[in-house]
Amino acid sequence: MTSHPDSAPIRILIGCDTFAPDVNGAARFAERLAAGLVRRGHEVHVAAPSKKHRLGGAFLETIEGEQMTVYRLPSWRWYPHDWLRFVLPWRARHYARKVLDQVRPDVIHIQSHIVIGRALAHEGAKRGIRVVATNHVMPENVFDFTLLPERAKRLFVRWGWRDADRVLRRAAAITTPTRRAADFLERNTYRRGVLPVSCGLRASDYTAVVGPREQHKLVFVGRVTLEKEIDVIIRALLRLDPALNASFTIVGDGDQRKNLEKLVAELGLTDRVHFTGRVSDEALRGYLTDASVFVIASIAELQSIATMEAMASGLPIVAADAMALPHLVQHGENGYLFQPGNDRELAEAVTHVLTAQPEEYERMQHASLEAVQSHDIDRTLDTFESLYRGTPVA
Predict the structure, then answer these.
(1) Which residue blocks in 127-207 are alpha helix, DSSP H?
(2) pLDDT tens, 103-155?
(3) pTM of full prediction above 0.90
(4) C-alpha torsion angle, residues 386, 391, 392, 394 (rounded to 10)
(5) 338 DSSP 8-state letter
(6) Residues 204 and 284: beta-carbon distance below 8 Å
């Protein structure tokens, strides 16, 4: 039987500047995307930084339970950051040509315009290969990890957006995780028609226990970095009524952990704040299932997979009213929004959740479970298959 052209397997090369073992939203998305495409019968290859400079090469790796070839390009550690590695820009196109010669993909899907994505977009366009681009990067966040003075950072942010435009113009289709992120990209570049496509997740992978909790447990999941503003949550914890006996668990690791541990000690909260460090996916899901409320104060989320994971775990959400978070949290429905940086408002919102009547608490839980259904990974995969083929998106 001859396969219909719209169902035939595609040879896909995904280009990432961050990928496993990195722990961040862009890496997690690329991993789920790659594994999901393999499950659908496509041939998936990934180009990503090496884990150490001398460990470059092609490797058969298991990602999200699926095997695929990952081309690890020789990379170097960026020391101002806790995990970031980068390929030397002047070597990236050489590596891109070698990977393209070996893979000969039908389509290239870049996950950023920084180094690897830039090289693959340039070399792929020269060869007439279809390029799809997903933007997970705001220059504002990149320069948070530099040692430049503030005035220089502002100049480089403007340059960064112009530079992004030069790369993204090579793409036949451009996506971002949310409509707000798409609007932000269009305002800062000449690109138009940017599609919002959720990073997606499989809600059935998470366990929701509907009903009031015996203990009041706040939880945050994510990188422990500056833009996450975890200190705001810690200060809010101090404002809560002691009778609530609330605790706060920070699931993840990052360059701000020592600073936050120092703050916790200064505020006398050592017995109420727990840092887990990096944990397995199974343990992460356990912390979410066991919590009472998910709290996120970040001001730079283009979507926030962690928030979606918390929603799939049936948690009410208290989130900063910034970037993409209002797209996930409907104020008064599945949780509450607070003014970014305002620990007093955050404390008030958390108190509303923790003191809610059982039926009100369960209503918020059900609202989270219902809202996350629109972010099902199969919808995301359907969309990208259409973009890869150049067919209309449903």
Answers:
(1) 139-142, 150-168, 179-188
(2) 999 999 999 999 999 999 999 999 999 999 999 877 655 555 555 566 766 77
(3) no
(4) -30
(5) E
(6) no
